[in-house]
Amino acid sequence: MNGSERGERLQVMLSAEELRAVDEFRYRHKIPSRAAAVRELLQIGLSGSVTDGDGRKSSEYGLFGRGANSHSAGE
To answer: For residue 63, which of 8, 25, 31 has the smallest C-alpha distance?
Structure first.
C-alpha cells in the first residue's frame, strides 16, 4: 500500500504536553498537518532502535514521564 491509499484509521490519545511536542515538530519542519507530522514521527521511530516490551502497561509508554502534566497524572 502506498501513502495515498490510507485505509486504516488509528486513534491515539495524547497529553497536552505530547500534543505540544508533535505541533512543535510539525511547525519546525513545515509539515502541513498533525497527521502528516505523526506519520513522519512514526517513520523516524520505526527506522530507529526500539527496545522490546517489558510488561509495561500502555499508559506507561509516552514521550514524558509521569507528573502533573502527564497523561497518567493522578494514577
So the answer is: 25
Look at the pTM and tell me if it is higher than 0.85: no
Query: Per the structure block, which three cell numbers stand in for 21?
Result: 511536542
Question: Taking a C-beta distance cutoff of 8 angstroms, is the pair 23, 63 a contact?
Answer: no
Query: How would you write the pLDDT of the chain (75 residues) with one tens digit per residue?
Result: 455 788 899 999 999 999 999 999 999 999 999 999 999 999 988 888 666 777 778 777 777 765 444 444 443
> Domains of the chain: which residue ranges?
12-44
Distance CA 49, CA 13 (A): 23
